[in-house]
Hints:
This protein has about 350 residues and is α/β, with parallel strands linked by helices. The chain contains 10 helices and 10 strands. α4 crosses α5 (about 140-150) and α7 (about 220-235) runs parallel beside α10.
Amino acid sequence: xxxxxxxxxxxxxxxxxxxxxxxxxxxxxxxxxxxxxxxxxxxxxxxxxxxxxxxxxxxxxxxxxxxxxxxxxxxxxxxxxxxxxxxxxxxxxxxxxxxxxxxxxxxxxxxxxxxxxxxxxxxxxxxxxxxxxxxxxxxxxxxxxxxxxxxxxxxxxxxxxxxxxxxxxxxxxxxxxxxxxxxxxxxxxxxxxxxxxxxxxxxxxxxxxxxxxxxxxxxxxxxxxxxxxxxxxxxxxxxxxxxxxxxxxxxxxxxxxxxxxxxxxxxxxxxxxxxxxxxxxxxxxxxxxxxxxxxxxxxxxxxxxxxxxxxxxxxxxxxxxxxxxxxxxxxxxxxxxxxx
Length: 340
Ligand SMILES: [Zn+2]
């Protein structure tokens, strides 16, 4: 059973004619969901999207940034940075994107079963406490994780977007209630996510980074989970799993150079979902993914596997570079364990 919010109102964030993060992405996601679940609604629970409140947003962003973003959009918008346009409708869309995650998580908690899919834009994982960047305005996955953490949950965030989620890392850097894990291409925008970045003094070991070289395949992503993250999650005591699911590590993506296939996302989804301790505790948040056909196939593979309704015929990938990264991450974990 898939818990999904209504996708209707999320296209008022206008990024202009040439921007890769465009409203058509949500149409590709809709098609991917239909491929996975069939034309009917039998396997879908739809929740009403709602705008995240100021109080819910300022758990992860500064009040000053939130007010200034709202005012900026109200005045017609412009550029937050050269990658990150803001239009008149961006504030309302961003608040619905953050609130969509909260609504899906609430419904999962109420039902105690199912898998959540938060198909929103703009994406969120680059949005830092005091400023949005890299196509992101509000950090959707962080808003949901902070709400869960405040309710006493221990939240694992696995970020398989090809870019490092610097915003999410910053927000939870010193927060022992959230374990943040990122697999990403390095060197690459935004330049953070080195292997030695493992969390602040109050939360040592609660950040884990896998900076993987160009050409890495799904095998490296799977090994990161199997050889490092599974044990780390058990030691952390994960009670909820949120996935920052960017699909720009796909080999067809125009923005990056990793070599995953749609079937890799099915394999990753299986592994990451298994780290949740029970049913109804996994929610998948859309981040990047800019080749529309690859996005559609990858969403179908992820959701189809998690709901047991569809298997991708684009099988998982093997080989490629990344062995050193996995080995180094393992050494860092062992050192932390020795110290603790
Ligand atoms: Zn990305």
